[in-house]
Amino acid sequence: MITISLCMIVKNEEDVIARCLESVKGIADEIIIIDTGSTDDTKKIVSRFTKKVYDFKWVDDFAKARNFAFKKATKEYILWLDADDVFLEGDRKKFKKLKKELNPSVDSVSMFYNLAMDEHGNPVTRLRRNRLVKRSRNFRWIGPVHEFLEVGGHIEMSDIAVTHASIHHDSDRNLRIYENRLKQGEEFSPRDTYYFANELKDHGLFERAIEYYEKFLAGGQGWIEDNISACGKLSDCYHETGDHEKMTVSILRSFTYGVPRPEFCCRLAYTFFEKGDYPAAIHWYKQALDNGVPADTWGIYNHAYSGYIPHLQLCVCYDRLGDHETAYRHNELAGAIRPDSKQYLYNKNYFQQLEELKKEGGES
């Protein structure tokens, strides 16, 4: 059985750190905590789980802090988490099984990262990340912010998931880091350009975000998943600035990177829906159902776009066209995915009322 060092960087995480560390019991043989300046009870809480707590002076560089943590590890493999991440019980069991059975020739194990869950606890938005890596390979973190772990060799794809359960975060921190780097005259990499655009968009700075998304895509050097994502975010920015023509062009731009993704089929469908062109909207919502998401993608994807959303929208489209039978069928298909959805239940009640009116009309 392999041995595992858990390496984390933390700051003021008293609300979540115990929950995270409780979830790795039976998984981590060693817990290494790098504190970057906590002023709350984080260190006190962490001391209940490990004595290996080290201070690191924060220099606006996440990669440096994570690499410092990795250097402290002594076990065969390194697991990394953020303080607001957890392993749910089912994933804990899978991980403990993996720990017993993992072939030592494996250099890295990728795991799902659940970013959002529905009301039943099922993942809605997720991606993949290299989560468990062989220490002897000396893999390094790269990038001051939105850092990534540069990994190669024998990578095993697992179905284990880390679940992100954030309570709060410093929403301005990353933007501040990027702005300071710009002031210092730093030339951004394609990855930095993309993530800087994301920060600008998230802060409502849509014109500047458009500038950097366009620069990122024009460079042609980005990861394909970031390229596709940038098209969607760029479309959102053009929508916010009222340029609906460029919004649609940005949606179509995503098609140049491969089979149209469900999200973008739904986006395009909605442009027709807003114009009242329901047959065209129906075509693209059906494409969303047919295309699905590539099974091997490492990018962020939202399962709702390949099932729940198109079925719900097809219900509305067919209803507007007077085809209540088909509309009802699609609403039931949406309900099979999310039975407690307010939209599904509203529609269900609507169809029940239609049926009652129909019966009343027949009786009279």
From TrEMBL:
Q: Which keywords label this protein?
A: Transferase
Coiled-coil segments: none
Start and end residues of each Glycosyltransferase 2-like domain: 5-137
Q: Which Pfam families match?
A: Glycos_transf_2 (PF00535), TPR_8 (PF13181)
Superkingdom assignment? Bacteria
A Gene Ontology molecular function term for this protein is: transferase activity
Protein name in the entry: Glycosyltransferase
Q: What is the lineage of its organism?
A: Bacteria, Bacillati, Bacillota, Bacilli, Bacillales
